[in-house]
Design goal:
The chain is α/β, with parallel strands linked by helices and about 300 residues long. About 50% of the residues lie in helices and about 15% in strands. The chain contains 13 helices and eleven strands.
Length: about 300
């Protein structure tokens, strides 16, 4: 039944059959999170880093209504270059597939598809969360609900303070999603290593991460795990500088009445512009760091099976 909708790249299929490590990668970060051509460069480098660390990369996207698990270079270029690719969250999946459209998968839908085919480890930049002022807008990313329900571990650099980090962590707690800090007690803030909030548990090795993930699912505790991996010190941004840019971007979004699914891409693009590309450079570096740790965790996870 699923074969009607999902096309799995041969090397990913082989890894699934053999039970060897795979790392899922998302495509919203390509189509909506970074500008061309750096988005394609980042996507290709991420795939290379997964391979260098002993796992198979599976970038996920919807092309012409087909859910693709694993993209080739041409398809990565296509996702990076083509204007107007829809941002596909859970609610958009069925319509995009049935109407044979293109869709860039968010954290939520990359997890969803990973869960459908049996990929357990996923690396990205930052997760979505509870937006500031969600008390009025109700804007809470579907990523959080997916983390509540779908058995995939997500390695990220925390969440940006375009969000309300405190409320995001409260939501994850309510939904029973463990938040683990990779070699840190602090929940990272994407461009900076600390957010002022703590993680639930610190872990110090890929093996320890894999062990907690495995234990969660062995205990039939449904849902995801967040592994928060801070940006390396040398690429960290100045806290006051980036905070100021974020505040400006939020003001501008409010003034222009930007809402719903446009909010995150709008804020990201504003930040890249306002920081003259510095935030984008940091973004790329933190993604590479997450991809590397995710690959190591995937290797440990499959070893322990
Ligand atoms: N945060 C980032 N970069 C991104 C995103 C989030 O730093 O590219 C993307 C991810 O795909 C995430 C999505 O799943 O934005 C969340 O969007 P929303 O807030 O509309 O749920
Ligand atoms: Mn939203």
């Amino acid at each position: 039944m699923l074969e009607k909708y999902i096309s799995i790249k041969p090397e990913v299929k082989e890894a699934l059959e053999k039970g060897t490590p795979i790392v899922a990668l998302e495509s919203t970060i390509i189509s909506h999170g970074m500008p061309y051509p750096l988005n394609v460069e980042s996507a290709k480098n991420s795939e290379r880093i997964v391979r260098e660390n002993g796992a198979v990369p599976a970038t996920i996207a919807i092309i012409n209504g087909v859910i693709k698990v694993g993209l080739n270079d041409e398809e990565l270029d296509y996702m990076g270059k083509t204007k107007g690719i829809a941002k596909a969250s859970r609610r958009d999946m069925a319509a995009i597939v049935a109407k044979k459209l293109d869709g860039a998968t968010t954290v939520a839908t990359t997890m969803l598809v990973s869960g459908l085919v049996g990929i357990r480890v996923f690396a990205t930049g930052g997760i979505g969360g509870v937006h500031r002022n969600a008390q009025e807008t109700f804007d809470i990313s579907a990523d959080l609900q997916e983390l509540a329900n779908t058995d995939v571990a997500v390695i990220c650099a925390g969440a940006k303070s375009i969000l309300d980090i405190g409320l995001t962590l409260e939501y994850l707690e309510t939904q029973g999603v463990p938040v683990l800090g990779y070699k840190t007690e602090d929940f990272p803030n994407f461009y900076t290593r600390k957010s002022g909030y703590k993680v639930d548990y610190r872990i110090d090795s890929p093996e320890e991460a894999a062990n907690i993930i495995r234990t969660k699912w062995d205990l039939n505790l449904k849902g995801g795990v967040v592994i928060a991996n801070p940006i390396p010190v040398e690429y960290e941004m100045d806290y006051d500088y980036i905070t100021d840019s974020i505040d400006k971007a939020l003001d501008e979004a409010k003034k222009l009445g930007v809402k719903g699914k446009e909010t995150t891409p709008f804020l990201l693009a504003k930040l890249h512009k306002d920081t003259e590309g510095k935030s984008l450079a940091s973004n790329m570096k933190l993604v590479y760091n997450n991809v590397e740790i995710a690959s190591k965790i995937a290797c440990e996870f499959y070893k322990a099976k």
